[in-house]
């Protein structure tokens, strides 16, 4: 029994020391782009975009560093050439859920006056004729041109939600920017500079 207690105490002490050390190492970029530490949510989103196989170019900007990582966004050029921005708020969003199983999309498009909210059910209904199913980021990026066409022609079904409603944070925020919008931000290619080095 004493042996079990000693082993348990040693394991607990090792975890108390190793976990913070690993968190700091991951946060300083010493462990690469692991989904752990300060940049966990950023790397979850980055990996989801990369794993889609439909992004020709991935750039980032707007990394709001604070005690905890807050807002960040990516500019993604799809293989079709269409550019979209994906917005995240690590404080309020479950980034993994947003990338792999979003409740819906919060869409900003020059054709809209305001942001339109679409549930996944509504998107599935609108895209059924085109034989497209949207379940996550991979479907969005790989079929971005078809999706944009359908979104421009149809209003959302969840616009009654407000920003203060915590449920709205379960919607993946996607923007179809125009040229003017693109000039307002400076972007860095994800392959050229690690987010840890961002000022």
Features:
7 helices, elongated, seven-stranded mixed β-sheet, alpha+beta, 199 residues
Break the fold down into its secondary structure elements and pairings:
Blueprint: H1 2-27, H2 40-51, E1 55-61, E2 71-78, E3 83-89, H3 95-100, E4 104-108, E5 116-119, H4 120-127, H5 137-142, H6 144-153, E6 171-175, H7 179-183, E7 188-189
Parallel strand pairs: 4-6
Antiparallel strand pairs: 1-2, 1-7, 2-3, 3-6, 4-5
Task: Kindly describe this structure.
By secondary structure, this protein is an alpha+beta fold. It is built from seven helices and seven strands. The chain has a seven-stranded mixed beta sheet. A hairpin with a 7-residue loop joins strand 4 (104-108) and strand 5. The longest helix has 26 residues, at 2-27. The relative contact order is 0.16.
Compact description:
The protein has helices spanning 2-27, 40-51, 95-100, 120-127, 137-142, 144-153, 179-183; strands spanning 55-61, 71-78, 83-89, 104-108, 116-119, 171-175, 188-189. The chain is an alpha+beta fold.
Following the backbone from N to C, one meets helices and strands in this order, namely HHEEEHEEHHHEHE
Average of pLDDT? 80
Say how many strands there are.
7
Helix tally equals 7
Query: Separation of termini?
Result: 53 Å
Spatial extent as radius of gyration: 20 Å
Give, in spatial order, the strands making up the sheet with the most strands.
5-4-6-3-2-1-7
Q: What sort of overall outline do the alpha carbons produce when their principal axes are compared?
A: elongated
Q: In percent, how much strand structure appears in the residues?
A: 15-25%
Low-confidence segments, ≥5 residues, pLDDT <50?
Answer: none
Helix % is 25-40%
As an assembly, this protein is single chain
Structural class: alpha+beta
Largest sheet: 7 strands, mixed
